[in-house]
inositol-phosphate phosphatase
Amino acid sequence: MAPMGIRLSPLGVAVFCLLGIGVIYHLYAGVISSRIAAFTQKKTVSLRDLLALSVEAAVQGGQEVKRVREDNKLEEKTKGKTKEGASEKLTQGDLNSHRKMYYLIKNTYPYLQVNSEEHDETNNEQGVWNREIPAEILRRVEGSREVPADSITVWIDPLDATQEYTENLLKYVTTMVCVAVNGKPVIGVIHKPFTGITAWALVGEASNMKPHATYNMNSPKVIVSRSHAGKVKGFVEEAFGNSTIILPAGGAGYKVLALLDPIDEETEKADMYIHVTFIKKWDICAGNAMLSALGGHMTTLKGEQIDYSGDFGNKGGLLASIKLDHQALVAKLPAWDSADKH
């Protein structure tokens, strides 16, 4: 007699499958739940580590900027026109610096949002931060404050003042890194490749810079963009009088350093910094953090705080000051409409 086979009804098949799923669930529930917990757990990053990494990135980028200029291999191109109609330069120094800075940060913290002025299609640089923290930062920054990684936006400017770089006006050139937390700038690094000076600040902790001894609000020295100094001159003189001294200069990083000490002898000293046209956030975020750490201010011309978690551009103009009554300065400014200023 042939052996009898076991035949299950459709209902029996369903019950058998459910029993199997139950056994699997009990066997692997612990593993699954631990994996889910690990996946959903928020990553945090040390601000002191990020400060040290930002300094290293700015210095490494600066080395590329300097090398390309000294080798005279700029390979100058144009990215198009700025909103003011000027030609926007791009050099090999910009690109090499971008690769060093961007990938050093992304390879170390791949889950961070990093916004750079430049983009390119080359292969990933392999550099990873060695996690060495400079002695000065260890000495001045106590502890290691952790913040959620998803609250961080990093802004890098691989070569600020590219126009001046092509003209060999090298005192204006900087590389910059800024870290914003929930849109507020908390870490600022401004490096001058051709003098080797690196200014840094961590809001609420320390900075290796300090304000000038005095600032003049009556007949101030106002530093402005050399590319449209004439446009801003009337605006500034209407606010502060005809005795105001206008200092045209290149690079937003340089202009912020002009408000601070100690810096090299070739950097002019200014009482405030004003910008009246559209400007990108990677140009100003590091300077904003630097001033904030020292009790200063950088706002729109209407006195509004600038958010560094949104889009790339600031359309509200710029007023930067330190050790002055910032709101009193804002009140002195003439009426200003961003729609009329590109």
